[in-house]
Amino acid sequence: MEPMNFCANVKKNSDKLARPQQKAELTEHTLSDRLGKPLKNTIEKTRLGNGYGLPSDSHCAKEAAIISQKRYASIKLV
């Protein structure tokens, strides 16, 4: 299973997001909706794990991105 973690650095003009998963399309749409803006960059897929178990719409992704947006800082949620 993929590790439950997410790295986010959400800024006004750019976004750096990284997550161990196979597909990121659903996560991108979910984060875009939750952050209230289109993502400037897509999510970097580290391709760790075997592709089973970690849902694309997980809470760790939303939490890290929202905290990063509010704090204007890089966040790694483990």
Give an overview of the whole structure.
- This protein is of the alpha+beta class.
- It has a single domain, classed as Aldehyde Oxidoreductase, domain 4, CATH 3.30.365.
- Helix content is 31%, strand content 21%.
- A four-stranded mixed beta sheet has the order 3-2-1-4, with helices on one face.
- The protein is globular and about 30 Å long.
- The model has no long low-confidence stretch (mean pLDDT 82).
- Output the helix-strand order: EEHEHE
**Based on the structure, what is the oligomeric state of the protein chains?**
single chain
Q: Beta-strand level of the residues, as a percent range?
A: 15-25%
Unreliable sequence segments: none
CATH architecture call: 2-Layer Sandwich
Look at the structure and give the CATH class.
Answer: Alpha Beta
Give the overall shape.
globular
Corresponding CATH superfamily: Aldehyde oxidase/xanthine dehydrogenase, molybdopterin binding domain
Q: Helicity level, as a percent range?
A: 25-40%
CATH topology: Aldehyde Oxidoreductase, domain 4
Provide key terms for this protein:
78 residues; alpha+beta
What's the helix and strand layout?
Elements (H helix, E strand, L loop, with lengths): L5 E5 L4 E5 L5 H11 L7 E3 L13 H13 L3 E3 L1
Parallel strand pairs: 2-3
Antiparallel strand pairs: 1-2, 1-4
